[in-house]
Amino acid sequence: RDYSTIAQGSRIRSFPHVEGNYALHVYIPVVIPFNARKQLTLVMRRAASLVPDLYAVDADYALSELCKDEQKLEKVLLGREFHVSLGRTVGIQVHQIDSLVAMLRQKFQSQQRYWMEFNKWEHFVNDDSTRSFLSLEVTRTGLPEISKQIHMVDEVYRLHGLPEFYKNPRPHISLAWALGDVSSKLKQATKEIEKFENSIISSKNCNLRCNFSRIVCKVGKKVYDICKIGD
User: Fold this and answer.
1) Which of 17, 25, 83, 160 is catalytic?
2) Higher pLDDT, 77 or 60
3) Overall fold of domain 21-228
4) What confidence category does residue 231 fall into, taking pLDDT thresholds of 50, 70 and 90?
5) Is 25 a known active-site residue?
6) pLDDT (average), residues 194-200
């Protein structure tokens, strides 16, 4: 892999590392449908020109570098799995893992398939202002269902003495990040992106839509399926 300009110091924990603790993350995996990727590639190219110091989420390659090759941009940036967080990423102890996973599985055993529509460009900053994110938010279709799932995760967290999610959840997938708090830059960029998107889309109903089909719980490097809806 020759994607240069790998971000330095990009992995910043939002909680202190404690010996014997594992990072816990509960989320809905999201894969961007093929038919939406071409358009999204154009939009991300525009984003890179507006905010030059953006990096691809999790891949940690500079967006400006990826923009030099459209196939690479589409594959590295958009061909991966994104996450809608259902709970805070927190540290848990090894003895809590089994009970937490079992309780989540029991809670989520009767989930139904539903549509999620990522219809609004937004920016977010992590709790300790070490990173800013350019994201697509769910504000309508899928919001009631995701909000309910967040409350269910909260109940399990509470029973394990873990901090609950933000009071007014705003479900989203993050596509790119920048170091530090650059919210003013990103706020301006999201306005420009929306204008640009409207200019390249012939139909207003061209929003990114995905089916909810599973919930995953990641503990350290291990991934547990919490629920999976068959096709």
Assistant:
1) 83
2) 77
3) Cyclic Phosphodiesterase; Chain: A, (3.90.1140)
4) low
5) no
6) 88
